[in-house]
């Protein structure tokens, strides 16, 4: 009866008021994943700070990185807490990245972003900076053999991250394990990772391979059957972009990324993707 009188009173104020007091429909998992994916795909530029924790042999490696990215064509500048700087611009420097190591001999190097030097103890390539890996985690590639992992994501409630309201997107995949895979033809580690949706790093680590290696036909390798056993994403309710991504596997924490000071689709001057931009040390 009380609700009836509230609605009746609201009717005198117009339909807009009636709609305003009606409860908002609950966000579904499908809607959350769709809006998250659309936000990632719609990125033109991205500025942010990233705190990364990645498991490598010997423990958890931590890094804090300032990141600027322009998409289409892809350009990225990064500087971490050690003063190491990386600049990659599509179509320049013969496909290599410029790297200033901030250590002896203090000269700028040209390195393959997917080569063994730049990928050493790194879960992801410079070419995957930003949210590219997350989009692949949610949807997989056209080559994916089994899509069981993607189907486990669920909207699991709300939280607050860095003072910002966020949705929780969670995946529980208890069947995570390493499986044997024997290619019938020569295959790159990248292709195998695409088929299993597991990322390249653990294939390289488990099978003592190097970035760029090709697995010969008939050779058996051990490959994760999914990206993780438990994955939690906290998605900004305004930007619909991740603020936190945390992945656990059979050994515990595999990686965690925290994004802060996120600014999207604001023009970044072209000069900021050049070696001689003020403040860079290349």
Concise structural overview:
This protein has 282 residues and is α+β, with helices and mostly antiparallel strands. It has helices at residues 2-12, 15-21, 29-41, 116-119, 132-139, 189-196, 201-206; strands at 45-56, 59-70, 75-80, 85-89, 97-100, 109-111, 153-161, 164-172, 178-181, 187-188, 214-215, 221-224, 230-236, 242-249, 252-264. The chain contains 7 helices and 15 strands.
Describe how the helices and strands are arranged.
Layout: H1 2-12, H2 15-21, H3 29-41, E1 45-56, E2 59-70, E3 75-80, E4 85-89, E5 97-100, E6 109-111, H4 116-119, H5 132-139, E7 153-161, E8 164-172, E9 178-181, E10 187-188, H6 189-196, H7 201-206, E11 214-215, E12 221-224, E13 230-236, E14 242-249, E15 252-264
Helix pairs in contact: 1-2
Characterize the structure shown.
This protein is α+β, with helices and mostly antiparallel strands and 282 residues long. Helices cover 20% and strands 35% of the residues. The protein contains 7 helices and 15 strands. An 11-stranded antiparallel sheet has the order 6-5-4-3-2-1-15-14-13-8-7, covered by helices on one side. Strands 9-12 form a two-stranded antiparallel ribbon. Strands 10-11 form a two-stranded antiparallel sheet. A hairpin with a 4-residue loop joins β3 (75-80) and β4. α1 (2-12) runs antiparallel to α2 (15-21).
Please describe the structure with a list of short key phrases separated by commas or semicolons.
single chain, 282 residues, alpha+beta, eleven-stranded antiparallel sheet, two-stranded antiparallel ribbon, 7 helices, 15 strands, 20% helix
